[in-house]
Design a protein that fits this description.
With 350 residues, the chain is an alpha+beta fold. The protein is 32% helix and 16% strand. The model has no long low-confidence stretch (mean pLDDT 96).
Length: 350
């Protein structure tokens, strides 16, 4: 498997589809593959990728930070999936006759728009939160899946309201510190040579290095429920270990077994896109970034910068792929690369 994966990734680098990658594959408790290939930056100079390279996780923030925080609040009885959002954020209800509930935010069925149509740099965090509350819904809550950054931004606002803490501080104390994820954070301050560079930023006149790629998260000061988190493959491996062990990490209970199993349940069987709480589930219809061979129990998530994590509980497999594909722009090569790589990995297992 190792030679096949190395060859696959090196070919993707040579073809200019990704600058580089860090990949980890674990199966039945054994580390099968872990390697860094290619470059963490190509412009203005080529710098080699390292195993400890720090990546902008983009939308993996949704499942690595926002999801576990929300699950903890559910466990503690501070909220329920059926709670109306306006019971916690009153201003949200002033504009909507339909009741958007916490579960709708976690399953991307709220009816909220996917994104803003205006330049987020023209607004503050508070103004963006207010704008989300005032947007018309695109459909009745619970009727359709529309993957929404705005829904996860709103959920982070809910978490702050219930914990009376800034979102980044809460997830650090409640999630990352117990998991010993010491290199996972918003607004990182590592040495410059640790980062995978992302896209050229016309506003700054440089490639973003250690600054969140997502414009909304950047405009919000680097912290949001939909994007902004930075991490390494080693830290994400710790997070994956917790999910694979039903909420336990080195004997410490991070999430309850019930919460873990509920998050992996299909809440959107009515839609072609199957969603758990936070997680994207392997759907029997349509393409999946997990490829063709993972089981019906598989779940995972992707990030726009080129990151992804997929689990297949049926064979006790997880695959963490970290790339900085947006360093080359917003081409769609990653959409074909992910499933082909997952096919190669899954087919090589007994």
């Amino acid at each position: 498997m190792e030679e096949q994966i190395d060859s696959f990734l090196q070919k993707a680098v040579a073809e200019g589809h990704i600058p580089g990658a860090v990949l980890q594959v674990a199966h039945q408790g054994q580390l099968l593959y872990e390697n860094a290939v290619g470059y963490r930056a190509c412009f203005p100079e080529r710098l080699p990728m390292q195993l400890d390279t720090v990546f902008d996780l983009a939308s993996l923030t949704k499942v690595v930070a926002t999801l576990p925080a929300a699950l903890q609040l559910l466990e503690r009885g501070q909220m329920a999936l059926d709670d109306p959002v306006d019971s916690i954020i009153p201003q949200f209800g002033r504009h909507h006759a339909e009741k958007v509930r916490i579960g709708h935010l976690l399953t991307h069925t709220s009816g909220l728009h996917a994104d803003f149509t205006f330049d987020p740099y023209t607004m503050t965090k508070e103004q963006m939160q207010a704008a989300i509350c005032q947007l018309d819904l695109l459909h009745t809550p619970g009727a359709k899946v529309i993957y929404s950054d705005l829904g996860m931004m709103l959920l982070a606002h809910v978490i702050e309201a219930l914990t009376d803490m800034p979102f980044d501080r809460y997830v650090r104390q409640a999630i990352f510190e117990p998991l010993e994820m010491e290199e996972t954070c918003f607004n990182p301050t590592f040495a410059q040579e640790r980062y995978a560079a992302t896209e050229f930023c016309p506003r700054r006149g440089v490639y973003k290095v250690g600054i969140v790629h997502d414009e909304k998260a950047d405009a919000m000061g680097g912290v949001s429920g939909h994007a902004g988190l930075f991490s390494t493959v080693a830290d994400l491996s710790r997070y994956a270990c917790m999910w694979k062990h039903d909420g336990l990490y080195r004997g410490r209970r991070i999430l309850s077994k019930t919460a873990i199993r509920t998050a992996r349940r299909n809440f959107t069987a009515f839609d072609a896109e199957h969603r758990g709480l936070g997680w994207l589930l392997k759907s029997p219809t349509g393409p999946s970034s997990s490829g063709d061979f993972m089981s019906a129990e598989a779940y995972g998530h992707t990030g726009f910068t080129g990151t992804s994590i997929w689990f297949d509980p049926q064979v006790h497999l997880h695959v963490i792929m970290l790339t900085n594909r947006v360093h080359f722009g917003r081409h769609d090569h990653i959409l074909r690369l992910r499933p082909r790589l997952h096919n190669l990995i899954r087919a090589s297992l007994s």
